[in-house]
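quick q for whoever's on today - can somebody do inverse folding on this one?? i tried earlier but teh output was garbage lol. tokens:
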């Protein structure tokens, strides 16, 4: 299994994995330059991305194929995205989730009222359209503790 930056050619595989994982997959291609994939036998088995929103980053659709879960791949993707965000001058990440609140809390994310989100986050398609209003908004400061891989 190899990890690399996503490419436009990965679009079908990413879309299929996100669809199987019941995650939004309508607009990720606009942000694909900040997506990471894990590939095994030419198949996308894990993905995660970052949408740049000015001084903030919005984590997008970290998904791992069911047969590869429990191996720490999602955490590795998150750590790589955190390093990328930090390198871009982003010090706070946001995400929306319906099912992974505890997982992201264990990574240092805290719940935030959606009404208190920065305007640039509120303006994203993910926030306005793709994620239901029932999705929980979470944030994490990444000023310190960024590991270099």
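ok took a stab at it. sequence:
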């Amino acid at each position: 299994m190899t990890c690399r930056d996503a490419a436009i050619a990965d679009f079908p595989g990413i879309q299929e994995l996100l669809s199987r994982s019941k995650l939004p997959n309508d607009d990720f291609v606009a942000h694909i330059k900040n997506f990471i994939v894990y590939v095994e036998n030419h198949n996308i088995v894990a993905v995660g991305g970052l949408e740049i929103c000015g001084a903030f980053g919005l984590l997008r659709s970290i998904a791992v194929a069911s047969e590869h879960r429990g191996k720490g791949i999602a955490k590795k993707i998150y750590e790589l995205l955190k390093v990328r965000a930090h390198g871009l001058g982003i010090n706070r990440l946001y995400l929306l989730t319906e099912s992974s609140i505890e997982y992201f809390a264990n990574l240092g994310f805290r719940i935030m009222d959606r009404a208190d989100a920065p305007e640039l986050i509120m303006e994203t398609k993910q926030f306005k359209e793709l994620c239901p209003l029932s999705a929980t908004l979470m944030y994490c400061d990444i000023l310190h503790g960024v590991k270099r891989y």
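fwiw The longest strand covers residues 43-53. also The beta strands are 2-5, 35-40, 43-53, 56-64, 92-97, 110-112, 136-141. so keep that in mind when u check it
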